[in-house]
Design brief:
mainly alpha, Helix Hairpins, two-stranded antiparallel sheet, 11% strand
Length: 204
């Protein structure tokens, strides 16, 4: 192996490395499992919200279609124009060492309109659109969480593979190679010692 010296110091270095790799690996594996579980949970939550969103949108579309008056309103004064998002509020969260946004709420601008110029169903339409906007914001936040968690999962998986398939086998192989070499050197030294001793005995 390149960079491995066949010495006792190198043997100690490789043993220390192997011990360190084996100590870190379970932590990385645990983090990988935790990330996988959290991603599954967030994806499930996202799917549930998408189901609610699809149902709400379908109800709104069929309902607005029945009344059909929205298309008759002046451009810029239709129901969707009466709903304007001021800001979406988040707080910072942390899962398995990953900083993620956590949805807190949504604020809408107060868009004034003449109640007398609109039919009664418009109020309900505005509330329905606000509900859809809130669902959009929640789903978007969950998608950001998934992206961030998946990125960390890829990095963690790469580290697990590096330790399992490269670092630990390399260190174990280096230790075996050094031990065999040092063992051979020790045996050779013993043999040389016996030969030298026999020569001394013969001479005397």
């Amino acid at each position: 192996m390149a960079g491995v010296r066949l010495t006792k110091n190198e043997l100690k270095k490789q043993k220390d490395s192997l011990k360190r790799f084996r100590r870190y690996l379970p932590t990385l594996q645990l983090k990988k499992q935790q990330l996988q579980m959290v991603i599954m949970k967030v994806e499930q939550e996202k799917q549930e919200l998408e189901g609610i969103q699809a149902k709400a949108r379908k109800e709104l579309e069929s309902w607005v279609h029945v009344f059909g008056e929205n298309e008759t309103f002046a451009k810029g004064s239709r129901v969707e124009d009466l709903v304007t998002i001021r800001q979406v509020e988040y707080e910072k969260g942390n899962i398995a060492g990953v900083n993620i946004p956590i949805y807190q709420g949504i604020q809408f601008e107060e868009v004034p309109y003449d109640f007398l110029s609109y039919p009664l169903w418009v109020d309900r339409g505005i509330e329905a659109l606000k509900q859809l906007a809130e669902l959009d914001a929640q789903i978007s936040t969950l998608e950001k969480q998934i992206r961030l968690l998946q990125r960390e999962l890829r990095t963690t998986s790469q580290r697990v593979n590096l330790f399992e398939k490269v670092k630990i086998p390399e260190a174990a192989h280096a230790i075996r190679m050094i031990q065999i070499y040092l063992g051979d050197q020790q045996t050779a030294a013993v043999v040389r010692g016996k030969i030298a001793k026999n020569k001394i005995v013969k001479v005397s």
